[in-house]
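TA notes, week 10

Several of you asked for a full example with nothing omitted. So below is the full record: structure tokens for the whole chain, then the designed sequence directly under it. When grading your own attempts, check the secondary structure regions first.
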């Protein structure tokens, strides 16, 4: 019997996320993908993108994350072989494969041209911005073997300017608006923590 595609793609991603997690108690990959799926589906509603394409691509976009920089291509290949084993509409599989293949990178110098690819890219990066990102990244850092001080954790969370580049790379209007707000919230949170650690709130 052909498998229903929604539970099938969810289970495939859950297995991949669990395998990646290792001994840590925080499953970042699973949390990230769940957030990306929610955002992708909402963006599909707001932009007119095909919901089935976007949802399937969002569930599977990091299914081969263990392949590192090649995970977008290997994930696309996985989807091309996996989705025909389900009741996912055959005529839409190529679009899912394309969206997964095009989601790589934390920012882009050139925008994507396919709407479903744009939506997946935006959802993936939006889930790495804002308060969601602060909690997810904290979970990742605290799961490491090396103990950290609060100051070291703050420095880790504050490093790099890739988030600003990601904000500027958003394709859809709702994602651009949300990305700006999320980055501002993230920066306020870190600034507030730094101020408390230094006792600046006493003055």
């Amino acid at each position: 019997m052909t498998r229903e595609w929604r539970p099938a793609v969810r289970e495939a991603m859950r297995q991949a996320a669990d395998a990646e997690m290792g001994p840590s108690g925080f499953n970042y990959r699973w949390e990230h993908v769940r957030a990306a799926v929610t955002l992708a589906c909402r963006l599909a509603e707001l932009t007119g993108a095909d919901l089935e394409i976007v949802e399937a691509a969002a569930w599977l976009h990091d299914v081969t994350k263990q392949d590192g920089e090649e995970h977008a291509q290997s994930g696309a290949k996985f989807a091309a072989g996996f989705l025909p084993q389900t009741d996912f509409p055959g005529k839409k599989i190529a679009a899912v494969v394309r969206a997964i293949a095009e989601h790589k990178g934390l920012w882009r110098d050139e925008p994507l041209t396919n709407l479903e690819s744009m939506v997946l890219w935006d959802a993936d990066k939006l889930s790495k911005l804002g308060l969601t990102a602060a909690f997810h990244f904290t979970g990742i850092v605290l799961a490491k073997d090396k103990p950290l001080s609060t100051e070291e954790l703050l420095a880790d969370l504050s490093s790099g300017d890739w988030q600003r580049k990601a904000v500027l790379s958003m394709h859809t209007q709702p994602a651009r608006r949300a990305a700006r707000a999320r980055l501002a919230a993230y920066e306020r949170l870190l600034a507030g923590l730094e101020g408390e650690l230094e006792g600046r709130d006493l003055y």
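The radius of gyration is 18 Å. Use that as a sanity check on your answer.
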